[in-house]
Amino acid sequence: MSQTEPGVQLNPDELNQLSKSGLVQIILAQQKLIEQLQKEIEKLKLSRNLDSQTSSKPPSTDLLKKSEKAKTTEDDKDKKRKPGGQPGHKGKTRKGFGRIDRIQILQPSICSHCGQTELLIEPVKVDSQQVAQLVDKPIEVVEYHRHHCRCGHCGEVTKANWSPKTVPGQDLGVKLQAFLGWLGNYGHLPYEKQQEMLWELGQIEIGMGTIVATNQRVETAINPSVEQLSKWVKVEQPPIHVDETPWPVKGVKEWLWVFTNQLFCLFRAADTRGRKELEDQLGHEYGGVLSSDDLGVYNGYTVVAQQKCLAHLRRHFQRLIKTPGQYNKTIGQTFLKLIDEAFRHYRIWQNDKNRHGYQVWARQFKDKIKIATEEWKPKAGYEAGKLLRNLRQKAEQWWYFLEHPEIPPDNNLAERSLRLAITKRKVSGGSRSMERFKQTANLLTVIQTCRRQERSVIDFFEKSLIAKVGHPNCLFPSLIPNF
């Protein structure tokens, strides 16, 4: 290694022996190294300061950066909502539960004034209060006796059918199995706690293997309904929101995809985050409107129309504000105001449905976007230039909702649909096999679709189990909208 290289440690005596040109070479080499290190430091600072507002990181990661002694201004207090019911919120239990299962009469037995017991039967006043209670034995143990009887006409022996509330050979009834399926996949209750719950509610002891087999039995029962929904999406091609999230399977990163709209939610367990998974579910081309983020896998996919998530674009410009550059902050703030204006007017349209007023604003807004883009294009640096080129090249995808307000400008529906899956992933730590991962995706499909359609998840599980057993006149329930 040469003595003039910056990595060499030289003492004062050695430096005094170097020529002027040698010292200049050392200084230039050190200056080059300092510039490289400064660039690395700026990159590290930028990545360190990223949060859910400036990147695709989840809000849970923000907790690590919030100070316990963070100061709040009066403006922050005014903007922040107070906990609890908000003004105008309609309570659900203030007017009762909509039904009364039992009326219990409470009569005084002793006069609170004189202590006598001679009270008139006819009450002077009746106070009433509805209370939802847990009954003493919410789990009932039933022993079914199935009779075999000889026919008095032909002499043959006929046996009765088992009750549709049972699964032949199983210790747990259909509704209880459906309830355990709900607890494990929607309530995220581990198998051990499900065992404890069965003891608390019914003083019954159930083995771990039985609970595991119950969950697998529920998944097998719903599989035909999920396959039917998957084929329906591919054939009917409704407007959908698409997103994906990583899912560990025995330490290997796999991917959970979601395809959803207001009436259904289809999850798909996949090996990759690539175009192949998108095409396997939707086909090589899609005849509906596809809403997504700006992930490269969606770029170039053949689709009738596409709406990219404006919330992601907003985060890109928020990040630009924090990126060093002469005009980055001004450019970021300019487009943040425009994006906020777009969200604000879309919410107004959602409330009043005034399509003419919305279209008038949309035409003016397009002109604002065009003017701002042309104004800042010559002044934009590398990062800002990439964003502005993205806006120009994918204008029809970023601003599709301006012409079609029935399509929202964000991909929040897909992201909210994934929250249940992400919670389950954090609780369970992922899946132990690809087969189990696919089962989880199917169970999440039923849960989220039933929520979309305002149906009972437990009731759907129960009907699926009954149909799987093969009870007469019992068909598999459907997840297809307009059921």
From TrEMBL:
Transposase IS66 central domain mapped to chain residues: 175-434
Feature: compositional bias, Basic residues: 79-97
Segments of this protein annotated with the region Disordered: 45-98
InterPro entries associated with the record: DUF6444, Transposase-related, Transposase_IS66_central
Short name of any one Pfam family annotated for the protein: DDE_Tnp_IS66
Superkingdom field: Bacteria
Basic and acidic residues biased stretches: 63-78
Biased composition (Polar residues): 49-59
Start and end residues of each DUF6444 domain: 32-95
Name the UniProt record assigns to this protein: Transposase IS66
Source organism: Crocosphaera chwakensis CCY0110
Lineage, opening ranks: Bacteria, Bacillati, Cyanobacteriota, Cyanophyceae, Oscillatoriophycideae
